[in-house]
Amino acid sequence: MDTAGKVIKCKAAVAWEPNKPLVIEDIEVAPPQANEVRIKIVATGVCHTDLYHLFEGMHKDGFPAVLGHEGAGIVESVGPGVSEFQPGDRVIPLFISQCRECRFCKSPKTNQCEKGWAADHYDVMALADSRFTCKGKKVLQFMGTSTFSEYTVMNQIAVAKIDPAAPLDKVCLLGCGVCTGFGAAVNTAKVEPGSTCAVFGLGAVGLAAVMGCKFAGAKRIFAVDTNPEKAEKARVFGATDFVNPKDYNKPISKVLAEMTNGGVDYSLECVGNVDVMRSALESCMKGWGVSVVVGWTDKHDFSARPIQLIAGRTWKGTLFGGFKSKDGVPQMVKAYMERKVKLDEFITHNMTLTQVNEAIELMKRGGWYISRLVLSA
Hints:
Layout: E1 8-15, E2 23-29, E3 36-46, H1 48-57, E4 65-66, E5 71-78, E6 90-93, H2 103-106, E7 132-134, E8 137-141, E9 151-155, E10 159-161, H3 168-171, H4 177-189, E11 196-200, H5 204-215, E12 220-224, H6 231-236, E13 241-243, H7 252-260, E14 266-269, H8 274-282, E15 290-293, H9 306-310, E16 314-317, H10 325-337, E17 351-352, H11 356-366, E18 370-374
């Protein structure tokens, strides 16, 4: 049946209100408007940022919404003015736009874009406009993507066309977590060959950061986490040492300083915890150490003593690992297809959309990556 130009009714996991289970609903997805594409989502990962919005951020204006921002799918139809995409294209939705026209897109110094939800809607994490309705109510598109739906509508500046041979149930992970962690090491920290690194937090983003450090040629990579069960997985991605802060009666920064003759060259905080951010900074070598804030949070202030920066350390943040989205994601897909980066090893569970709440609970309990939710055959 030809669905182009028609409203599509499909299944989606709707977050009607914060701190409550998602509800599988029948929603209506409007046809794409000017410069938009409608995408049939094939697979999606569950990322901690979904949980952050649901259980931590809980902004009153951010609901109801369809969560999910780490998916891959097939273009079903396109709206007027779309020339880059056509039905049948394999694509990855992007939570960061790349319009190629604004001052940010034209600058090599950043991957941010003045268009899209991320420009000024960090609190609500969605634009006011939406192509979703359910039970007569507008439903927001979380981070502009909403991959916990069988169909979604995206502006073409927030969609990446990828190799048609790439397995969508694997490369969906490049929509957020893997690019974020890998790029934090390679693009933002700019890890150098022969250096020492410490990665704090070994969820998907942290493991991807470990992989990025390894890819960049780091000599020694400390994987830091309070869950000893993550040690083996960290080594799969390139960690040389596993350090559990619970095993010591002193700050982890002092432990790492003793193990590295003063501190690591690069540290990456992949938890989204302000106390861990400070620990990561303090674990860096004075004079040249670089610490990158990778974990997503916007709930608390963080702090450090001025001397820690005066002494020569650099403290910086990263969004989506510094990748310009439409350019970087296809490059990462290519790297996966050439076996230069890992994706299969991140996958711990394969589940269906109807099991989304179970997937969320697994992630809450274990902090592991829960992928993939299979939305369509």
